[in-house]
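Consider the tokenized backbone below.
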């Protein structure tokens, strides 16, 4: 049972006027319905065809000047989002050595930074869930299980955005005085911040091999997210630039996560529920998530017939999953699929999700093309940041900071 006390009320915390807290609680109900489907239920939560594998989509043709090439990739995305809600992308333009170097930063953060320095940047110092969170401090599933993961979280910074942003960044709670990340001290973890920055924006380094530089497409993570927004728009038969005005100072929390080795390694099939859960079952909150994972499996996604499917690491692949905003925009056509992490191996596991949101001050409202007289909108409009904050508040025992 939930042990959350002191839940925020809409009046005391929400200046946006919409009922994002009700929407956040609705998401908890969606999760419960997915985890405990009624035997005769015909709701959209259970009506999808079961799946056993996760599609791999090569993004390379989506960088073509030809609209039909881009549309062809978008149609694969449409198929994946209406069936599984997860896919891997290859040919995405982020160089593999950069992905590996970013994953190594996660290992460095957890191994090299002294505990006292981690505690100095504890997320309890932050109103926006930025900084270090120790194991079992948060729970995505109402503290029904103790989560073994530990994490370091940060949010959007204009300085990390290759476009520089539009100067209008608005925080989760609507405040406009800048993003308040808590970074480790440079002296204690030299090169850490610059390493993260490389994942976000090009660094003025001469390419080691100029010919290769000219021949290959090189993207960083935020540019890839904006590119995916074009493809999601095309996949929904919207103008390609439909989401552009909504991602000029986008919300985007990213985190380094460490899952400790299992004390009793065993395969997926023989493990009972809620044993050594790294990260409890949940859906993600924003538009979509991009996930780097190391070579250790652990991510599991829930098929509509109750089977957990392992999202095994794919060489050079980045996991993409639909999150709640896309489900709300599309009136449930795209699935915000429930997933969890269980490290069933004797090795540590590291992952780096980036939860890509639209500008936190913009609203998510069901797309007109996804409603009809027979299929009215299931969702009220919500302000992006407020919804994410309300969902985050539900992950701490106090209900809020
Ligand atoms: O660590 C992973 O593989 C997934 C993490 C995740 O689902 C999340 O942080 O929301
Ligand atoms: Fe997730």
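A designed sequence for it:
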């Amino acid at each position: 049972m939930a042990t959350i006390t002191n839940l925020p009320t809409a009046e005391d915390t929400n200046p946006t006027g919409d009922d994002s807290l009700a929407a956040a609680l609705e998401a908890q109900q969606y999760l419960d319905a997915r985890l405990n489907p009624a035997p005769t239920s015909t709701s959209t939560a259970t009506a999808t065809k079961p799946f056993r594998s996760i599609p791999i989509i090569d993004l390379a043709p989506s960088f073509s000047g030809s609209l039909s090439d881009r549309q062809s990739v978008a149609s694969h995305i449409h198929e994946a989002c209406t069936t599984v809600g997860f896919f891997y992308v290859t040919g995405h333009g982020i160089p593999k050595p950069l992905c590996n170097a970013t994953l190594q930063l996660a290992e460095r953060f957890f191994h090299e930074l002294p505990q006292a320095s981690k505690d100095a940047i504890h997320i309890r110092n932050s109103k926006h869930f930025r900084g270090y969170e120790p194991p079992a401090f948060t729970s995505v599933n109402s503290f029904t299980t103790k989560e073994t993961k530990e994490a370091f979280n940060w949010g959007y910074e204009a300085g990390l955005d290759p476009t520089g942003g539009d100067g209008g960044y608005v925080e989760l709670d609507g405040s406009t005085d800048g993003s308040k990340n808590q970074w480790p001290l440079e002296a204690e973890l030299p090169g850490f911040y610059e390493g993260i920055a490389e994942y976000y924006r090009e660094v003025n380094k001469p390419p080691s091999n100029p010919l290769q530089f000219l021949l290959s497409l090189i993207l960083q993570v935020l540019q890839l997210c904006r590119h995916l927004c074009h493809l999601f728009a095309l996949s929904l038969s919207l103008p390609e630039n439909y989401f552009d005005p909504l991602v000029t100072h986008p919300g985007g929390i990213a985190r380094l996560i460490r899952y400790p080795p299992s004390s009793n390694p065993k395969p997926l099939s023989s493990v009972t529920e809620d044993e050594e859960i790294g990260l409890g079952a949940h859906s993600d909150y924003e538009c979509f998530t991009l996930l780097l994972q190391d070579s250790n499996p652990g991510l599991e996604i829930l098929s509509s017939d109750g089977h957990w499917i392992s999202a095994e690491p794919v060489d050079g692949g980045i996991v993409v999953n639909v999150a709640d905003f896309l489900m709300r925009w599309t009136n449930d056509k795209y699935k915000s699929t429930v997933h969890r992490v269980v490290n069933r191996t004797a090795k540590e596991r590291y992952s780096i999700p980036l939860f890509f949101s639209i500008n936190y001050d913009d609203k998510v409202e069901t797309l007109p093309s996804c409603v009809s007289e027979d299929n009215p909108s299931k969702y009220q409009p919500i302000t992006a940041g407020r919804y994410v904050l309300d969902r985050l508040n539900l992950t701490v025992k106090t209900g809020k900071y």
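Residues 1-8, 42-46, 211-215 have pLDDT under 50 and may be disordered.
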